[in-house]
Amino acid sequence: MAVSGFIRADEVLHEQLSPQRALELDVRYGNADLLTALEILGVAGPFRAVTPWELEDPRGVRRIQAGGYAALPFGENYPPLTQFLAKVLEASRATGLPQQASSAWRAALQSNLIRLLSMHYPSHADSQVFFSNSGTEAIEGAIKFARAARPRAQHLISFNSAYHGKTLGSLSVTPNAEYQDMFRPLVPGAVTLPYGDFDALRAKIAELRPDNVTAVLVEPIQGEGGVITPPEGFLRRLGELCHTHGILVIADEIQTGLGRTGHWFESAAQGLDPDIITLAKPLGGGLVAVGATIARKWIFKKMLGGLASKRHSNTFGGNTVAMAVGLKSLEMLIDENLPERSRRLGELGLERLRRIQAAYPELMSEVRGAGLLLAMQFQPVLSHRLLRSQDELIKELSSILALRELHVAGVQANLSLSSKRVVRLTPALNMPEDLFATMFDRVEAMARHNPQAWRMLARTPPGVLLKLGSFALRS
Ligand SMILES: Cc1ncc(COP(=O)(O)O)c(C=O)c1O
Predict the structure, then answer these.
(1) Which partner for 274 in 13, 117, 249, 475 could form a disulfide, CB atoms 3.0-4.6 Å apart?
(2) 319/467 same-domain check
(3) What is the pTM of this model?
(4) What tens digit of pLDDT does each residue of 377-432 get?
(5) Residue 33: is its pLDDT beyond 70?
(6) Are 247 and 272 in contact, with CB atoms under 8 Å apart?
(7) How far is the CA of 255 from the centre of ligand 1 (A)?
(8) Single GO molecular-function term (predicted)?
């Protein structure tokens, strides 16, 4: 059968589909408006990875990759990982989707995860792992484990500016009106409290009565919230309070875990001993999707015990390619001592950002960081008094224009999904040091060109502003 206009896989492999055509087709058949907005800003790509840490745009301009939303521990297409995957595909005779059988790859990754975990959380030596295909799915699993373990409790506590994902369960504990409002009613029982406020937590648990609280779900540092670290002792006290009452604690380590913040597990570093831990992003080495929900044995058995062991499942979780890449990724993180490197480089990076912020306070109001999770908070580009009703849009404009200006300066960065004025740098944990230094030179050059935030607006070509304006009006 001939399908007109059908694009053969080899054409894409051999780069015969031009970047222009790829973008056109993506806009036409994909998330058109998102791509259109990126295109207006001139940051839509598609990009090629010319080294694991550098991207090239269709015009041949190279930029340092500090984006990827913390899911690229080794950069893009890191040869030791891609070569290993090629060997697996060539040599392994393991079945790809072993849902109804044991799997050596899955067994090895589970075992390694628990061994690594129990070095940092000794109480997890006999915990069990459930694999899925994204961070949000790992959170869905965690919510279901918690509910199964405390069936009479009804409330799930999470925090302001939290980000746990966008499927319905995880969205219910991601308090962001833009993402939630259209989808109400959400999963009932979600309660939002101020992040880092232990007294508010204690009071709320007393008010709801502890038996009615299923779990507290917490990011040890809020990534999408703009790299917010809770006050010292908050997580430890949260854990002690919950354990006293039998309330479960879920640590969402999807963004922070496996070295990003300079620790293997940020919650352990802050003295928390959670009952359930979620991992995703870097576990897939930047190459494949792997989510993991790790729960104490008794909790695991409550949901997946005996004849009910299929009560929660998915088709692709634990598939061979994902497990092989996950196994190798974890091994490389250990062998290359990357959490330690992330801490060391992170301190240097934060120091550079602090100096840039101090020199350009009218551009950046604040910088923050933990390991290689680094944040720059920008000043508003317009006074909110100018457009009082458009406060959110004005905030967002700061980070969108900062993203564009960084792009122009040669750095690919991340927006923050729950914090409008923050742009994050999340470079690979193994980025070469000279490139790492160059990245900050470029951030500094960007600041030099925009000593006040409003300059970012003045430097944006009028055509781009016009298109952005009409784009905003039509949404
Ligand atoms: C802390 C945290 N949890 C959950 C998620 C959702 O992960 P995913 O985008 O893979 O669904 C994210 C994604 O940014 C995250 O940062």
Answers:
(1) 249
(2) no
(3) 0.97
(4) 999 998 766 665 666 777 788 999 999 999 999 999 999 888 889 999 999 999 99
(5) yes
(6) no
(7) 7
(8) identical protein binding
Show the ligand 1 pocket: residues with CB < 6 angstroms: 69, 134-136, 139, 163-165, 219, 223-224, 252, 254-255, 280
> Which pLDDT belongs to residue 386?
63
Amino acid at 196: G
Specify the pLDDT at position 388. Answer: 59
In this structure, are 355 and 399 located in the same domain? yes
Burial 68-84 (b: 16+ CB within 10 A, else e): bbbbbbbbbebebbbeb
Please indicate, yes or no, whether residues 265 and 391 belong to a single structural domain of this protein. Answer: no
Look up residue 198 and give its amino acid: F
CA distance 191 to 213: 10
Q: What size, in residues, is the chain? A: 475
- DSSP type of residue 217: E
The answer to whether residues 125 and 158 belong to one domain is yes
- What whole-number distance in Å separates Cα of residue 222 and Cα of residue 418? 9
How much distance in Å is there from the Cα of 355 to the middle of ligand 1?
30
Q: Which residues, other chains included, contact 301 with Cβ-Cβ below 8 Å and sequence gap of 6+?
A: none
Domain assignment present for residue 383? The answer is yes
Q: Is 435 helix (H, G, I), strand (E, B) or coil?
A: helix
Output the residue whose Cα is nearest ligand 1's atom 8. Answer: 135
Same domain as 151, residue 72: no
Per-residue confidence (pLDDT) for residue 417, from 0 to 100:
85
Count of domains observed in the chain: 2
Neighbours of 211 (CB within 10 A): 13
Sorted by sequence, the CB contacts under 8 Å of residue 416 that are 6+ apart come out as 223, 224, 225, 226, 227, 375, 399, 422, 423, 424
CA of 308 to the centre of ligand 1 (A): 28
Mutate to test the pocket of ligand 1, among 132, 159, 222, 224 (most ligand atoms within 8 A of CB): 224
Tokens 């006999």 belong to 126
Cis peptide before 380 (omega within 30 of 0): no
Amino acid 383: pLDDT: 73
Q: Which domain holds residue 353?
A: 20-78+338-474
- Report if residue 86 sits inside a domain: no
Residue 423's closest CA among 369, 343, 342, 359? 369
Nearest ligand 1 atom, CA 256: 1
CATH code of the domain in which 170 resides: 3.40.640.10
Higher pLDDT, 351 or 466: 351
Residue 446 lies in a domain: yes
DSSP tally for the chain: helices H, then strands E = 18, 15
Which residue is closest in CA terms to ligand 1's atom 9? 135
Report the C-alpha gap between 28 and 10 in whole angstroms: 22
Confidence of residue 78 (pLDDT cuts 50, 70, 90): very high
In this structure, the answer to whether residues 328 and 352 fall within a common structural domain is no
